[in-house]
């Protein structure tokens, strides 16, 4: 289940990935993409482009909306699911969405230290759908190392959806790191020939620094020991990367929350209990409690709950 699998960043086409591809494309309305101030490799944009209707394939997983807009007893259509996960129009500033999976007992890592062992099929689809809606996938280097992240490749249905929405062909992968300890082949997608641009955002190196992997753009921020999250998000927004999807991990998530930057939390509650000492979806020192409002709650037929919460003031904007 490669293209959409948390914990597996390869992009091999499999019968299952073929079966679930292209489900999201009906009734998709175009969005207007703000002009990028600095264009990244492969990030050409065609705002507001609308294409002819696309044929879609059936999927087997069914989803039922328990709370949210238009609750009914019917299962959610593919187009409806896509709308529920459309990345809100960010306007002038970025809109930061985090996406995590957690077990019923709060673990963000499976027994193998990765998230791929605790997710479900319904989570993988929604994960892939969110990627299709994002300008940039933001991660901390710990997640890049644990989950073997590589440049983001997409399935045809994801690329088609992006094209309809007027988004760049691929989302950029942005990684923050102080150590710059990243795999050399980071910019090469695990399978396929193309992948999105990759950028590394790091504090300015005072001494000798590890070389940046080939084809990775380096953004160095001066006068900082750690990358400050506000500057990080501003640097992304300045490049036209305003639909920010943070896929982790827990330490980066905590910093984004501490800076008051998380507009939206998508969380999959996976029907597992694993015990142990795994990290939660945020790690580190206590935060000032921050209220969020439920935007939707979906029950999937594989027993997962798919939750979307909006930060108080964003829920009403
Ligand atoms: N359940 C889920 O949905 C989910 C999602 C993502 C990850 N995970 C799991 O979470 C675990 C990784 O956790 P983690 O908390 O270590 O991941 P993380 O937050 O992605 O990575 C932490 C690392 O990111 C870099 N970093 C973070 N903040 C920084 C800053 N302000 N400036 C510069 N660099 C910064 C540092 O990298 P350097 O050490 O290179 O300096 C730091 O060690 C893995 O087991 C992964 O599987 C789970």
UniProtKB/TrEMBL annotation:
It comes from the Bacteria. Pathway: Cofactor biosynthesis; riboflavin biosynthesis. SUPFAM superfamilies: Dihydrofolate reductase-like (SSF53597). Residues 94-283 form the Bacterial bifunctional deaminase-reductase C-terminal domain. One of its GO terms (molecular function) is 5-amino-6-(5-phosphoribosylamino)uracil reductase activity. Keywords: NADP, Oxidoreductase. InterPro entries: DHFR-like_dom_sf (IPR024072), RibDG_C (IPR002734), Riboflavin_Biosynth_HTPR (IPR050765). One of its GO terms (biological process) is riboflavin biosynthetic process. This is Pyrimidine reductase family protein. It comes from Microlunatus elymi.
């Amino acid at each position: 289940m490669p293209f959409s699998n948390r914990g597996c960043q390869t992009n091999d086409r499999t019968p299952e990935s073929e079966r679930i591809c292209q489900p999201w494309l009906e009734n998709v309305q175009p969005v207007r993409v703000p002009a990028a101030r600095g264009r990244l490799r492969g990030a050409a944009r065609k705002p507001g482009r609308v294409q002819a209707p696309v044929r879609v394939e059936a999927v087997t997983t069914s989803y039922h909306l328990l709370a949210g807009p238009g609750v009914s007893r019917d299962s959610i259509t593919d187009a409806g699911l896509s709308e529920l996960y459309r990345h809100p129009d960010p306007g002038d500033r970025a809109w930061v969405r985090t996406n995590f999976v957690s077990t019923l007992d709060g673990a963000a890592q499976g027994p193998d230290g990765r998230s791929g062992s605790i997710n479900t099929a319904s989570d993988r689809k929604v994960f892939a759908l969110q990627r299709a809606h994002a300008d940039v996938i933001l991660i901390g280097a710990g997640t890049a190392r644990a989950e073997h992240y590589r440049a983001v490749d997409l399935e045809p249905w994801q690329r088609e959806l992006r094209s309809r929405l007027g988004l760049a062909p691929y989302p950029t992968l942005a990684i923050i790191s102080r150590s710059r300890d990243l795999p050399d082949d980071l910019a090469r997608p695990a399978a396929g020939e193309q992948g999105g641009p990759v950028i590394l955002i790091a504090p300015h190196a005072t001494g000798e620094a590890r070389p940046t992997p080939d084809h990775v753009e380096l953004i160095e921020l001066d006068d900082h020991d750690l990358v400050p999250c506000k500057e990080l998000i501003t640097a992304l927004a300045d490049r036209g990367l305003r639909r920010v999807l943070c896929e982790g991990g827990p330490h980066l998530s905590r910093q984004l929350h501490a800076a008051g930057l998380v507009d939206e939390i998508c969380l999959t509650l996976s029907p597992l209990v694993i015990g142990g000492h795994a990290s939660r979806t945020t790690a580190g020192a206590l935060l000032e409690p921050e209220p969020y409002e439920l935007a939707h709650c979906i029950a999937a037929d594989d027993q997962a709950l798919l939750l979307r919460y909006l930060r108080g003031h964003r829920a009403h904007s």
